[in-house]
Amino acid sequence: MDDPVRRMAFTRRALLLGAGMATTGGLLAGRMAWLAVFQGENYQLKAQENRVQNRLIPPRRGWIVDRHGKPIAMNRPDYRLELRPAEIEDLDATLIAVRGVINLDLAEEARIRDDVATQPSFMPVVVRQNLSWAEFSACNVRLTTLPGVTPVQSFSRFYPEGEHFAHVVGYVGAPTPEQYKAEKNPLLIYPGFRIGKDGIERFADKRLRGTAGASRVEVTARGELVRELGTRADAPGETLKLTIDRDLQDYAARRLGDNSASVIVIDCVTGDVLCMVSMPAYDPNIFSRRVPAKLWNSLQEDDHTPLLNKSAMGLYPPGSTFKMVTTLAALEAGVDPGESVGCSGAYRLGSNTWHCHARRGHGGVNMHRALPLSCDTYFYAMGRRVGIDAIARMARRLGLGQEYDLPLPGQAGGIVPDKAWKMRRYGPDTRKGGWREGETLNASIGQGYIVTNPLQLAVMTARLASGRAVEPRLFADESKRPPEFPSLGIPETHLALVRQGMIDVVNARYGTAPAARSAIPDVMIAGKTGTAQVRRISMAERRRGVIRNEALPWKQRDHALFVAFAPTDAPRYACSVIVEHGIAGGRYAAPIARDVLGFLFEPGRALAVLPPIEAEAARRRAERQAAETAASIAVERREMMPSWLRIDIRPPQFEIADPDAPQPPREPE
Amino acid sequence: MDLLNGPWQRELARLPWTVVVLVCAIAGFGLVVLYSAAGGSLEPWALKQGVRFAVFLLGALALALVPPERWLALAWPIYLTLLIALVGVELVGAVRGGSQRWLDLGFMQFQPSEMMKLAIVLVLARYYQYVPKGYESRAQVLIPALALIAIPVGLVMLQPDLGTALSIMFGGVVVLFLAGVRLWLFGTAAAAVGALLPIAWTMLHEYQRKRVLIFLDPESDPRGAGYHITQSKIAIGSGGLTGKGFLNGTQSHLDYLPELHTDFAFATMAEEWGLVGGLFVIVMYGLVLVWGLRTAVNARTQFQRLLALGLMATLFFYLAINMMMVMGLAPVVGIPLPLISWGGSAMMTVMILLGLVMGIARANRPRLD
After folding, report:
1. Which candidate, B109, B60, B56, B68, places its Cα nearest to that of B85?
2. pLDDT at B58 over 90
3. Beta carbons of B72 and B126 less than 8 angstroms apart
4. Same domain, A527 and A591
5. ipTM
6. Domains: count for chain B
7. How many domains does chain A have?
8. pLDDT band at residue A194 using 50, 70 and 90 as cut-offs
9. Of A17, A25, A222, which has the smallest distance from its Cβ to B174's Cβ?
10. In whole angstroms, what separates CA A467 from the centre of its chain?
């Protein structure tokens, strides 16, 4: 039954099929050779990319130290518990297990759940930072079997002196998504990595940051680590040396008590900023973690502005501390120092009267007595004679109205007004018109448009004391020699006259600041008081009698200012003190300057004055705390009240003095 | 019962032992691959697979002792039983809801579509055995033959199991081709399929469409559905000429390669043994196929010829589709590499297939005595 024809036909077809199979086999072999041999390197690379992962080792942040090498910002070991959402199957069960080891309160748990829900799942979520050693070891022992939960040891920023350095050094925090987008640095999304957010931490962030290391690890497709293949160590950030003297800064901060104040000390020769305190401040240790909303709100609402660096960002009318500028401008204009101006307590210009702080007047005042007496009338007369532009030029030469090259974000430039400035500011023919003579009178005693920050006042004093164009600096560069500053170009006789005036302010019988007289026998202090008014005194009030500062609410009291340098024979340190709403420069700011400068010469004696001040500050802080608590309870009660029962008691609104208005008489300084 | 009474020791000696050795070599190599895929361990795959292979080999040798005429007689009953089983699977699936491929027989799970791959060849060989020369392409002959193919293919497509359906269709069409159906008919059919492709596209399931799309451009979704093909190509490509060495595969051991012990076992092998290992597998299977071709050409009846070569073509289909899939030449369809991939049902099919062809070879061996 086997038909040979059929057989032949089958064989033909079979061979055809066989040929097809062979072709396919050849094709497969060729394809495989193509993949493995010709594309082999490419695929080997890809397999390598699959297998090997580069893991970042974040660098340790550089330290910030003071001029003697004492740490201001450092790193300390920080233990935390992390949770990787990608590896967790049951978040609830995991959290229950975690709660068995460390206490998690409801708010923390809510935050963790929130983070898990919002972050990409490969990003670890911090369960708890700052674990104690006991907690950390408990986690290590009891949570190792829990998938997705890992105890991690890292470093966190630590500021040993806390709030005393908050405004200079700033703090660190997690980078924002915008920063990552701008920089594209994978370090910025490394969990727990911090960058500088304020002050020097922010300004010098690149130097402090260091460079990340990397470790090459073999991982499975699920990201589990198999073994480490090699590591490149990280390079920690630079150590930054500041010109600040840590002990002096601490002392100044403590000496300020609970005042809202700023103290700056500058080396007149090198420009080193030895101390730059703005109090009250915040604790950068807390800011470098998460700031609790409640703390943040209370800091923001605090009328002592703890979030503002008053030293560089606060702007105040310089008041009488500006009179040295007017004096120098008058001398440069050729005014005879011996020329006397009669002070009757008031100075008339047109139909307006400008008052001197001494209601009965100083009688005849010449340039030698004008500064110690702080006679406003003398400076009205001199200012009017030399004109605003000459005063403004001198102010700028002494460093006012400008920003310095300092690593501080957001320095305030202040205003040194002159005719051109007013033209720019208000336009050529508005209601205000051009520059008016009354404004010159205000400017010549440091009121009106003129505003400065405490740092500028300190620089001004340093320039007066040294006669050189001192530029402040915060970084102590060991490599560079102390800079030689050019001379200001003011004749030494002029400067000597001003310095003698400042010596007399403190040391003469009739000076306004006997409180600043140095307790150290062979170190004399020279200075100038200033009391800057923040409210307008109306004619009606003047008729009734001006309300004493102490009787006013805190916000309406005058600012107390004091600038000083010491020692008088060879000036070395210049200092400026501003006590916000401190009533009177001579009485309240001058002793602070005296003590701070005294600390530089005899620390022991200066420290002795602290206990009563600190006790008083603690008492007032406790009082404020109690008042705040009571207020918050009252607010809560009020919120619970039905709306028709609520009586809105608003704080009274005060108008700010028109800078153009004549200056009312002030209390004697 | 000539199986028991007959001189079966003599018949045993007439078995094609060279092929048995070849098959053992392939399966042995497969066990080595599975041993490595388990991270250098006999558990959970290599040992079980080895035992299974031994059992199936004995079964295949036993089948090889059955005279081919017996299969001629049983062709229709086997085909019809499997058709009923396929319908049964559909019914059970409809009752339980969802896709259903298995029939639970209590002692084992039975996949009728798998056996249908063999039965379709068997029944068509039986059908064309009695078609006289010159009548193969006549409509009255061709239409019933096409119906024999279309019914099981349709039932399997309903499961839905595209890979198996294509496999059954391939087996059937190859038998038609070998039986002498005119070539222009195949050309016309291919053209028609090409024209109908867009319509078929709309009938595919979403996941099937996705597989095809990803096959066309695997890099479009390297982390998602294109992951399989991309990782498989990386595994094969990174193996290079001689591979990374036994137990040194990274793609497989670090879990980048999915299904490393089943459908992608070839990639697991190629990563560690390189092009050399791949060529070894291809050549070994090539030798088996050549032997099958020779057996078919030398067979005495049209039934035996068609059966032998049809079954060999089915084996070829397994190999070609699987290798093309792992090398990125075909879409991902769930077809394992016979004797190397882990899994019992594919191995059983292939061993039965080999048993049948060995039986034909034995029957046609010139008697030496």
Report:
1. B109
2. yes
3. yes
4. yes
5. 0.91
6. 1
7. 2
8. confident
9. A17
10. 29
